[in-house]
Specification:
The structure is a single chain. The chain is of the alpha/beta class and about 400 residues long. The chain is built from 13 helices and 17 strands. Helix content is about 40%, strand content about 20%. Strand 13 and strand 14 form a beta hairpin. It is globular, with a radius of gyration of 21 Å. It starts with a helix and ends with a helix. The structure holds pyridoxal-5'-phosphate. Pyridoxal-5'-phosphate binds next to helix 5.
Amino acid sequence: MTSRKLNSIIDDDKKYLFQNYGDRLPVCFVRGEGAYLYDQDDARYIDFFSGIAVTSLGHGFPAFSRRLHAQLDRIIHTSNWFYNREQAAAARLVSGLAFKGRTLFVNSGTEANEAAIKLARKWGQETAPEKFEIISFEGSFHGRTFGGMAATAQEKIRKGFGPMLPGFRYLPFNDVGALEKELAGNPRVCAVITELIQGEGGIRIASRDFAQSIVSLCTKHGALSIIDEVQTGVGRTGTPFVYQQFGIKPSAITLAKGLGGGIPVGALHARDELMRLFEKGSHGTTFGGNHFACAAVEAVMKELMKPALLKKVAEQGKYIMKRVNALKSRIPAIREVRGLGLHIGIELSMPGADIAKKALERGLIINCTADRVIRIMPPLTITRKAIDEGLAIFEKLLAQECARP
Ligand SMILES: Cc1ncc(COP(=O)(O)O)c(C=O)c1O
């Protein structure tokens, strides 16, 4: 494909697609290899983004690719009217890596949260009809459907789509006192939903005390504790799921993004005793957990079960954070470096969108979130060589941009 072909794609995009993503970055990737992507003119890029933390095994990971090719030739979809070998096997693997529980496969992160919200409402209404309120936290992001949007405590996400689903309350993130007060005084709360690292909110990490208080206070007041692991889950932070680093046992977790390594699939995974709440006919989805999607989950999970991979994720993450932290003395625009594993945010004292754009021009894919936070989320399989290449571009760019008057 050539640049001329790219222009014709851009023309069609502008003419035929909703423009809800605004102006896209002006490249069209045509192939990938590990942590490298190649554009229409065969220019190479280092991928520090993984399609928003999705392609965790990298591009063209051989075992993943082989498994999906074989699955494609054998069977893709039959529906949830029938037993499904891949779905059952994928659920067993999720239980093995998280906690023994029940999994419901869906197609995206927002649908996983939608399922969690429905589960929470059922849970509350077993006790009392008015026990339907769900607490989430300022700066959170839980998706774009009505449940996910209502749980998302960012006005810009909800603007213009009212009225919202009722029954959501927003509290400050990392404020144990505010949560304690709310749960003690409000018997209508049926669940608390939170990320432990706010991804879209700028890689803000929950304190251990906050995470542990959520679970213990929920248990005390008869509410479910739901951890949204859509972005942090499936190895991204150096453990299979980030909640495992906080010493907590939540009622449920929600997953998507890295779960299918690029194949769209999400999941709600909840404690065994909650299974009864979704009785026959209460919830479902046509595509959810089809053979192909669950073959992808199986292939991803099998890699995650290799301790060497997760150990490497933690090491590579520490290495990146150390290198960027070392820049602080030279580049005062770097305010803070935060993260766990390969889920890293670099907070700048200036807007970061332009830096991400310029990085792309130099062959490095990074992302800016929450206006000033550069997000680094490479494939979990990235090599030290690719990290060094990417950091060299990033360090040079930052030094140039931040030196400007
Ligand atoms: C924490 C979190 N929850 C939910 C979602 C929504 O996932 P999806 O875009 O797959 O619907 C996202 C997406 O960025 C997310 O980061």
